[in-house]
C-alpha cells in the first residue's frame, strides 16, 4: 500500500466535480481520481492509505454508497459533501472518519489531507512537547504536564501552523480564550491584531453592524463611517467566543462571510475582501445543537476545520500542585507580602472536588485564601457544599446485590478514604503527623494513602 497516495472518488457528474478537481490540482499531494465504476473493482491496497469521496446532492440517496463503504472496512477517511445536509444523511457520514462541505478553500482541503496522512502513522498528541515549546507555553500561562493537557497543547501548536478556522471546545474556565491567543501569537499573523468578541453580548439586531461596520447615512444615527470588527482584525485574527449564542439569522450572515471572506458594510454599495483568520469557542456541543436545529450544520462544518478541546480541571488533577504554585507566585508579584505556599493537606480534598468552574474557580478561591492568610501556609478550605456532601461516609453508591463480605469491603473502603482525607487535612499533608493522629505506623498509613490515590 502506498502510504502517501490519496484516492478521490467522485459520486457526482463530471461537471459538478470539475471545480473541486481544479482545487485538488493545486495541492502538493499524490492524488488519484477514480470514478465509482472503477473503484468497486480495486483492492484496498490499490486504493492507497487515504480514501476521499465527493458526494453531490443527486447521488446522496444512492444506497450503494453505504455498501461500498462497508465492504472497504473503515474507509473512507474523508467525505466532502456538495450541497447535502449531512445530518440528514447520517447513514453516509457515520461511515466516514471526517466530513467537510464544498465549496471551501484549497487550504482547508490541504489541512484535512495532511491530517489524514498523519493519522495513518501517528496518533495526535503522541509526540511530547520539547523543552523550548514547553517554556513558551508556560510564558503564556499554560501550566500543566498531565497527558490530557499536553495533548491539548500539541493541538494548539498544530493549529498555529495552519491558517484555517479552529473550533475551541471546553467547559467554562478551561482557558479557551487563552488557547485562541496562543494560536494567534504562535502563528503567522502574530504581528497583526487579535480581536476577541463575546457573541453573547451581540444582539441579533446589531450583529451585522458590529461585524461588518456601516457607511455614513446607513441609518438615522450613522453620522460617519464606522469600521466593523472584521475590518479591525484585518490581517490578524477574529475570535468569536460563545459562538453557540448567535441567533440563526446572525449565523447566516457569518456563514455567508466565511464562504468567500467578503462582506458589505451596511449602507455600502460595494463588497470588501477581508484577510482575517477566524477562531470560535463554545462550551456547548455544536453537533447536538445542529441536530436540534438551533445551530446551522453548514456553519458548524465551516468552523470545525480544526478542533482543540481544553480539558476540565477534574480531568487533570495531577496538575494541581503546579497550578497552585504558579498562581501563588503570581499573587505574590501582584500583591506583595511574605512568601506563601499551599498547605499540602489541601490536595486531599482538591483532588476529589469536581471544580465546576475549572481553573478560573481555582484562581478565584486561591486568591481569596492568599489575601486572607497572615502566615506563610495557606489553608484552602473546601466549598461548603462539598463539606456537606463528604462530612459523612457516602455509602449510597454501594452495590448491595453482593454477598456480605463484598458489601463490607466496599463500605470499609469508603470509610478509609473519608478518614484519610480528614486526617491528612488536619496534618497539613504531613504523613508522619497524620500517622500519629491516626495511631498507625507511618508505613502502614502510607500504603492506605497510596491505595486510595490520595498522593
Tell me what the structure shows.
The protein is of the alpha/beta class. The chain has three domains: 5-121, 3-Layer(aba) Sandwich (Rossmann fold); 131-311, Rossmann fold, CATH 3.40.50.300; 315-451, Helicase, Ruva Protein, domain 3, CATH 1.10.8.60. Helices cover 44% and strands 14% of the residues. A five-stranded parallel sheet has the order 2-1-3-4-5.
Question: What's the arrangement of secondary structure elements?
Answer:
Elements: E1 5-11, H1 14-24, E2 30-33, H2 36-39, H3 44-47, E3 50-56, H4 64-71, E4 78-82, H5 90-93, E5 98-102, H6 106-121, H7 131-139, H8 147-161, E6 166-169, H9 176-185, E7 194-198, H10 207-212, E8 213-214, E9 226-227, H11 229-232, E10 237-241, H12 248-260, E11 262-263, E12 272-273, E13 277-282, H13 286-292, H14 297-303, E14 306-309, H15 320-335, E15 341-342, H16 347-350, H17 358-372, E16 377-378, H18 384-390, H19 404-426, H20 431-438, H21 442-451
Parallel strand pairs: 1-2, 1-3, 3-4, 4-5, 6-13, 6-14, 7-10, 10-13, 15-16
Antiparallel strand pairs: 8-9, 11-12
Helix pairs in contact: 8-9, 15-17, 19-20, 20-21
GO molecular function: ATP binding; sequence-specific DNA binding
Pfam family, one: HTH_8
Protein name: Fis family transcriptional regulator
Instruction: Note poorly predicted spans.
Output: 122-127
Q: Would you identify the CATH architecture of the largest domain?
A: 3-Layer(aba) Sandwich
* CATH homologous superfamily heading of the largest domain: P-loop containing nucleotide triphosphate hydrolases
What number of structural domains do the residues give?
3
What is the CATH class of the largest domain? Alpha Beta
Alpha-carbon Rg, integer: 27 Å
CATH topology-level name of the largest domain: Rossmann fold
Q: Give the percentage of residues in beta strands.
A: 5-15%
User: In which order are the strands of the major sheet placed?
Assistant: 2-1-3-4-5
The shape, in one word, is globular
Structural class: alpha/beta
Biggest pleated-sheet summary: 5 strands, parallel
Count every beta strand, where a strand is a DSSP E run of 2 or more residues. 16
Q: Helical residue percent?
A: 40-55%
Integer average pLDDT: 80
Amino acid at each position: 500500500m502506498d502510504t502517501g497516495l490519496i484516492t478521490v472518488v467522485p459520486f457526482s457528474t463530471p461537471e459538478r466535480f470539475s471545480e473541486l478537481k481544479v482545487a485538488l490540482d493545486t495541492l502538493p499531494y499524490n492524488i488519484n481520481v477514480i470514478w465509482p465504476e472503477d473503484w468497486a473493482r480495486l483492492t484496498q491496497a490499490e486504493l492507497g492509505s487515504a480514501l476521499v469521496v465527493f458526494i453531490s446532492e443527486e447521488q446522496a440517496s444512492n444506497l450503494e454508497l453505504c455498501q461500498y463503504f462497508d465492504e472497504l472496512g473503515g474507509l473512507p477517511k474523508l467525505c466532502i459533501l456538495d450541497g447535502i445536509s449531512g445530518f440528514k444523511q447520517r447513514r453516509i457520514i457515520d461511515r466516514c472518519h471526517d466530513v467537510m462541505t464544498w465549496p471551501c478553500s484549497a487550504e482547508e482541503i490541504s489541512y484535512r489531507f495532511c491530517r489524514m496522512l498523519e493519522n495513518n502513522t501517528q496518533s495526535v498528541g503522541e509526540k511530547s512537547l520539547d523543552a523550548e515549546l514547553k517554556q513558551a507555553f508556560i510564558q503564556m500561562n499554560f501550566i500543566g504536564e498531565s497527558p490530557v493537557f499536553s495533548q491539548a497543547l500539541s493541538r494548539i501548536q498544530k493549529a498555529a501552523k495552519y491558517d484555517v478556522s479552529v473550533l475551541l471546545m471546553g467547559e467554562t474556565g478551561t482557558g479557551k480564550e487563552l488557547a485562541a491567543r496562543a494560536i494567534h501569537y504562535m502563528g503567522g499573523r502574530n504581528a497583526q491584531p487579535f480581536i476577541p468578541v463575546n457573541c453573547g453580548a451581540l444582539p441579533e439586531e446589531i450583529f451585522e453592524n458590529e461585524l461588518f461596520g456601516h457607511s455614513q447615512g446607513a441609518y438615522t444615527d450613522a453620522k460617519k463611517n464606522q469600521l466593523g470588527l472584521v475590518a479591525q482584525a484585518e490581517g490578524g485574527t477574529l475570535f468569536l467566543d460563545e459562538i453557540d449564542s448567535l441567533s440563526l439569522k446572525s449565523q447566516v450572515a457569518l456563514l455567508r462571510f466565511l464562504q468567500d471572506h467578503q462582506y458589505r458594510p451596511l449602507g455600502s454599495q460595494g463588497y470588501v475582501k477581508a484577510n482575517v483568520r477566524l477562531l470560535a469557542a463554545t462550551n456547548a456541543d455544536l453537533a447536538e445543537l445542529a441536530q436540534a436545529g438551533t445551530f446551522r450544520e453548514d456553519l458548524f462544518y465551516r468552523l470545525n476545520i480544526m478542533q482543540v478541546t481544553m480539558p476540565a480541571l477534574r480531568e487533570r488533577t495531577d496538575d494541581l500542585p503546579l497550578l497552585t504554585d504558579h498562581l501563588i507566585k503570581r499573587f505574590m508579584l501582584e500583591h506583595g507580602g511574605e512568601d506563601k505556599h499551599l498547605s499540602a493537606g489541601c490536595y486531599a480534598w482538591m483532588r476529589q472536588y469536581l471544580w465546576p468552574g475549572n481553573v478560573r474557580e481555582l484562581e478565584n478561591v486561591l486568591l481569596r485564601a492568599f489575601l486572607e492568610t497572615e502566615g506563610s501556609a495557606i489553608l484552602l478550605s473546601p466549598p461548603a457544599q462539598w463539606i456537606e456532601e463528604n462530612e459523612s461516609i457516602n455509602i449510597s453508591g454501594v452495590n448491595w446485590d453482593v454477598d456480605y463480605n463484598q458489601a463490607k469491603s466496599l463500605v470499609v473502603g469508603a470509610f478509609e478514604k473519608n478518614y484519610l482525607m480528614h486526617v491528612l487535612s488536619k496534618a497539613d499533608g504531613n504523613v508522619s503527623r497524620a500517622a500519629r493522629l491516626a495511631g498507625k505506623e507511618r508505613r502502614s498509613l502510607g500504603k492506605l494513602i497510596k491505595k486510595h490515590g490520595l498522593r
